[in-house]
Amino acid sequence: MPIDRGCIALAEDDPIMGESLQRALELEGWSTPWWQTGRDAIEGIRRSDPDLVLCDIRLPDMSGEQVFRAANARSLAPPFIFMTAYGQIDQAVSLVRAGAHDYLTKPFELPPLLQKARDIIAARLQPPSEGILGVSPEMRRIEALLRRIAARSLPVLVTGETGSGKEVCARFLHQISPAAREPFMAVNCAAIPSELLESEVFGHEKGAFSGAHQRHLGYAERARGGVLFLDEIAAMPLALQSKLLRVLEERCFHRVGGEAPIPLRARIVCATSANLSEEVHGGRFREDLLYRINAVTVEVPPLRERPSDISWMLSRFFLAATEQDGSGLRGISSLAEDAALTHPWRGNVRELRNRVERAVALAPGPWLMPADLFPELRDALIEGVGIALPLAAVRDAAERHQIERILRETGGHIAEAARRLEISRTTLWEKMRRYGVLASDARE
Length: 444
Fold this sequence. Notes:
Blueprint (H helix, E strand, L loop, with lengths): L7 E4 L3 H13 L6 E2 L2 H11 L3 E5 L7 H8 L8 E5 L4 H9 L4 E4 L4 H15 L12 H13 L6 E4 L6 H10 L8 E5 L5 H9 L16 H4 L4 E5 L6 H13 L1 E2 L8 E2 L3 E6 L3 H6 L5 H7 L2 E4 L7 H19 L5 E2 L1 H9 L5 H15 L4 E2 L1 H4 L4 H6 L7 H19 L4 H8 L3 H11 L9
Parallel strand pairs: 1-2, 1-3, 3-4, 4-5, 6-11, 6-12, 7-8, 8-11, 13-14
Antiparallel strand pairs: 9-10
Helix pairs in contact: 2-3, 10-12, 13-15, 18-19, 18-20, 19-20
């Protein structure tokens, strides 16, 4: 029987129907968390990030519609299929119009449901097995979202911690867009003095102010039909926010000291590590501008929340650094990888890249060791004191390594790997999905 990897969540209060559906879905190879109340479903959806939700319209503590709306309050929400009795069809149709994928009338046949589920999950797992932005499920979904909007000129807001890869996402969006041959102009709004920012973004005419000895073309004009990337948009002064709002509304701007309108051809992509809702509440950011720049919001999770990307990026940065440096290093030791997996990475991807480049330059070799990546912990490592690490992080890293080792030893044979690990095949698939373990050659 072919096995489909993915997670189908179930919100159903009927114990008989819930158990029957959960068993049928798990036999097909899907991980199937089951919640019997709306409150548990909302929390479970946030925690497990399923690929599909099967939801009863009537739950003990709230309606399925409330669960649906709560799930869709965040970006990249999973698709919903509602299960409804005959008297609730009108509500189900209304939910489909609101964005739900489909509805089924109880009682329903199982094969059509399974086929719907296969089609939906296949569409959601379209990104190639070799991820470009990352191999974690989170980054694959972001990549899929960016591919869907690449051909459209909608403004995009990218949020996330410093160093998490916001500009990388923006550049990827530009590279896969029809305007890829046009310029990508990046402006760090926090790095340019506020009194100069307007001139840098929109340009100025000769004599517009003291020191303006000649006409200057701003980033917006030099971007032509490409992308104007406004990084750390929260640092933009309020007066300039007002001008940017008008530019977005009218699709044209004026150079400082100029009278002729200049059409804005570029796509606007903004990024911030700040919480713009809090900035709006504090009066530091215009609420109307926030609504205008976040036609599509991309939330980049911190690196510590996607451990599979840590190993992937560790290898990529190591190869790039050794090729450039001509180092004789043979590779990254498993101890160094374990240390990387349990490090909090407060600087995210930027910190990881910097640590790898420094380690490659200074490591005595032939293998990259934990003390090479984390020299500030060298004394603790030498003394055997160890590092105070979260227990969950240590457990996850150990589980991932063991799963990868057993899969290699069994040639990707899932049933045999599950037997040796003393877990069920369904549990193994779920753990592989959770840790981002690639299994393109896995078989039953």
